[in-house]
Amino acid sequence: MKPVQYEVVYRTERDHWWYRVRRELAKKLIAICAGKGGGLHILDIGCGTGALMTELASLGEVEGVDASEIAIEYCRSRGLTRVRVGSAEALPYPEGTFDIVLALDVLEHVRDDRVAIAEIRRVLKQGGAAVIFVPAFRFLWGAIDELGEHFRRYTLRELRAKLAESGFGVRYSSYFNFFLFLPILFVRKLVRLFRTPSISENEIGSPIINALCYRVFSFERALLPHVRFPFGVSVMAVCRKQQ
């Protein structure tokens, strides 16, 4: 991710509809995987500026890793100490360390996502769970991908296949951000049509739009993971490390 983006994320992720619901959804999926009790050892890969880590603290011991020293400095400014610089393709942790590994919008940033998936599996305890989010569909490519320095977007089938190849058992998978799919597709097509200069989507929208998107996405979060959506802006998978 380009350095300027970290300041934008740090400033907006507490209140931005996308980050708020993503954090809520991640916590919900962790509860389904591991129960609602604490005592978990959790790794947040691509921890960014640290807002998710702060909200996971009640679940146990949370560690974060990010490829950017800038991101790690923002984490430390939030009072987070168990953070370090490191690559998703070479995680700086021993094998079998964590109960839960989160990779929320990470795999699209790495050149070899199969290596990163293998690393996620390596650092999980036997029977441990991974929660993975990635962006969906190449035709949705937009400013967020350019500024995020993404290598790819995914289909559900592609993500499931790569997880299975690495020895994961996929417990649940679906597209998500389903109800906002058409508005987001429309906006990105307009941006492309009129060649609007790339700006962060975090900066787009009024407080009213932000609140409306949060309500719509929150409704969808309540449905997940009880339903599977046929398409969406993103893809999710919850999987376990098998023998």
Structural summary, described in words:
- By secondary structure, the protein is α/β, with parallel strands linked by helices.
- It has a single domain, classed as Rossmann fold (3-Layer(aba) Sandwich), CATH 3.40.50.150.
- It contains nine helices and seven strands.
- The chain has helices spanning 3-12, 17-34, 51-56, 69-77, 113-123, 143-148, 156-165, 181-193, 207-223; strands spanning 40-45, 60-66, 83-85, 98-104, 124-135, 168-176, 234-241.
- It has a seven-stranded mixed sheet with strand order 3-2-1-4-5-7-6, with helices on both faces.
- It is globular, with a radius of gyration of 17 Å.
- The termini are far apart.
Task: Break the fold down into its secondary structure elements and pairings.
Blueprint: H1 3-12, H2 17-34, E1 40-45, H3 51-56, E2 60-66, H4 69-77, E3 83-85, E4 98-104, H5 113-123, E5 124-135, H6 143-148, H7 156-165, E6 168-176, H8 181-193, H9 207-223, E7 234-241
Parallel strand pairs: 1-2, 1-4, 2-3, 4-5
Antiparallel strand pairs: 5-7, 6-7
Helix pairs in contact: 2-9
What's the gist of this structure?
With 243 residues, this protein is an alpha/beta fold.
Give the helix level as a range of percent. 40-55%
CATH C-level name: Alpha Beta
Distance between the termini: 35 Å
Radius of gyration: 17 Å
Q: If helices are DSSP runs of H or I spanning 4 or more residues, what is the number of helices?
A: 9
Outline type = globular
Task: Tell me the major beta sheet.
Answer: 7 strands, mixed
Task: Please report which band the strand proportion falls in: under 5%, 5-15%, 15-25%, 25-35%, 35-45% or over 45%.
Answer: 15-25%
**Strands side by side in the biggest sheet:** 3-2-1-4-5-7-6
Please mark out the parts with pLDDT under 50 across 5 or more consecutive residues, or reply none: none
CATH topology: Rossmann fold
